[in-house]
Write a structure and sequence with these properties.
mainly alpha, about 0% strand, two-stranded antiparallel sheet, 2 strands
């Protein structure tokens, strides 16, 4: 599921790069007991996760600006066709075993060899199928030129399979500092390779080669930095147990990726490669909070929530604080981005990309909703309620296909953006709320701390509208609108956000390291997330 260098969206965008995994120098998985110790681990891990993702955003900002002037929207569209195939396969080729390994309540060394064997076999099989099916998939998406690029990117499936267990170990044991080192190293090499190859005239191939090179470097570093490296082995009982947990999760991830990528398929088929390139830029910009905040939180939220599952009061409080924090920040970023969409795209990427603003103004609503949905899914995964997320994803996908097709046919990428906004508010958001109620959570308790952060974001949006309308020119609109938005937000929401952040880190006042001898102690039976 989680590759060593797996993207939230295609690397070609400023904000859409490999979802950066995180690591730290000391192994810090806790022994059983102690909410205070767990709080230190989660806070420490989240900080390094966030630093890693923010650093990646800076790197890809540079890459996105350069590539937007080297490649045309149509070339981005060709790469996106190949990327859709890659992202679906790399989220299912481990059959959900990596996530099962993260949640395993016993000694992970007992299941490591079997996990290596099963994931490797699945990855090789899916690689062969994807390689053979590449021309048919490319034609189905209306871009036969993407066949070779798809086949090159399928190599990433093998890379994922080779290092998935080490990636799972690093996530399980909160090794965010080391993981950040590995991921940022791989990202840096990928950026250099991609830009160099694009400048040499390789077009969409430059993006594919950059992905393969970055994944390879990242995977090797994961393998070297992980605590354990297992020889292949096989135990039928262990394999059956892992698959019984992992396959339902893999199915959920498959539907999630179908939801995330069905729009690319429909836009490519209905509107063509150029429109797909523009839509890709808009979607990736709107996904910035997801790729920065949600992935940072996810790396620590699943194991963190799992360890609190038998204390529902503490779990609800932790989830409510995290939800208010990520929703408040993502609403701020996405709201201001929607107001300044046209000026932002023209100034940063150039006039040829201005059409992306048509969809961006509506896709930001999807971006904010996905942040909250992802955190809710993490909570359900930790409580072993993954089937509820699967149902939500299935209903979401069923509603998206006709809505996106109608929107693309009648109003281009703008219609697709509107369809995305309507469907996410009507299907998955209410579905998640129902799932949380059925899990025993009070919606008042969950959302009790969100009003002020969201009010601050609304004030920032109004300030940006007024300030940007008072000036002329893209640069002045960005400067005045951005400054006014930050000022309004600081007056209303800065203090509540600070308090939420401090509450999450209250148990980490002393940043002491956990004894390495306890780093890979198994979870206690009463804390088992399974």
């Amino acid at each position: 599921m989680c590759t060593p260098y797996e993207p939230e969206g295609p690397v070609l965008s400023t904000f859409a790069v490999a979802s950066i995994d995180e690591k730290q120098d000391q192994q810090v998985q806790p022994q059983a007991g102690g909410d205070e110790q767990l709080g230190r681990l989660v806070a420490h891990g989240f900080r390094w996760s966030l630093v890693s993702n923010l650093s990646a955003r800076v790197g890809t900002l540079f890459m996105g600006i350069v590539l937007a002037r080297l490649l045309a929207p149509e070339e981005y569209g060709v790469y996106t066709v190949a990327f859709v195939a890659l992202i679906i396969l790399t989220n299912t080729n481990d059959l959900g075993i990596e996530t099962a390994l993260i949640r395993y309540p016993g000694d992970v060394d007992e299941i490591g060899p079997t996990a290596v064997t099963v994931i490797a076999a699945s990855s090789v099989l899916q690689f062969l199928i994807a390689f053979a099916a590449a021309p048919y998939f490319a034609r189905a998406l209306g871009s036969s030129d993407a066949t070779g690029v798809i086949r090159l990117l399928t190599v990433c499936i093998l890379i994922n399979g080779a290092f998935a267990v080490q990636s799972g170990l690093l996530t399980r044991e909160f090794q965010q500092r080391r993981r950040a080192l590995a991921d940022l190293t791989g990202l840096g090499i990928s950026i250099v390779a991609t830009i160099a190859l694009a400048a040499a005239g390789l077009g969409p191939w430059s993006l594919a080669w950059g992905r393969v090179i970055g994944n390879s470097v990242n995977g090797v570093l994961h393998f070297y930095l992980a605590r354990a490296r297992y020889r292949p082995g096989y135990d039928r009982v262990i394999a059956r147990s892992l698959l019984s947990i992992g396959v339902p999760l893999a199915a959920t991830f498959l539907f999630a990726e179908a939801v995330n990528n069905v729009d690319y398929v429909i836009v490519g088929r209905v509107l063509g490669s150029t429109a797909l390139g523009l839509y890709l830029m808009a979607f990736n910009l709107s996904s910035w909070p997801v790729s920065t905040l949600s992935f940072s939180v996810t790396r620590v939220s699943v194991p963190g929530f799992a360890r609190l599952q038998h204390n529902r009061e503490a779990l609800q409080a932790a989830f409510g604080r995290a939800l208010a924090l990520v929703l408040g920040l993502s609403a701020l970023v996405c709201g201001v981005m929607a107001v300044l969409a046209l000026s932002l795209i023209r100034f940063v990427y150039g006039p040829p990309w201005a059409g992306a603003a048509l969809a961006l103004r509506f896709l930001v609503v999807l971006g904010v909703a996905r942040v909250g949905l992802q955190l809710g899914y993490d909570l359900l995964y930790a409580l072993a309620r993954g089937r509820a997320t699967l149902v939500i994803q299935m209903l979401w996908l069923a509603a998206l296909i006709p809505a996106l097709t109608y929107g693309a046919s009648h109003d281009g990428i703008r219609g697709v953006g509107i369809a995305q906004m309507i469907v996410v508010l009507v299907i998955p958001v209410p579905g998640l709320l129902l799932a949380l109620r059925r899990a025993g959570f009070s919606l008042r308790g969950v959302f009790g701390q969100t009003p002020l952060p969201l009010l601050g974001a609304a004030c920032a949006v109004l300030a940006a509208i007024v300030a940007s309308a008072a000036v002329h020119g893209d640069l002045l609109s960005l400067l005045c609108g951005g400054i006014a938005a930050l000022g309004a937000w600081a007056l209303v929401a800065a203090r509540p956000i600070y308090r939420l952040a401090r509450a999450d880190h209250a148990t980490n006042a002393d940043d002491e390291e956990i004894d390495e001898s306890d780093a890979h102690a198994p979870l206690a039976a009463e804390q088992s997330p399974i």
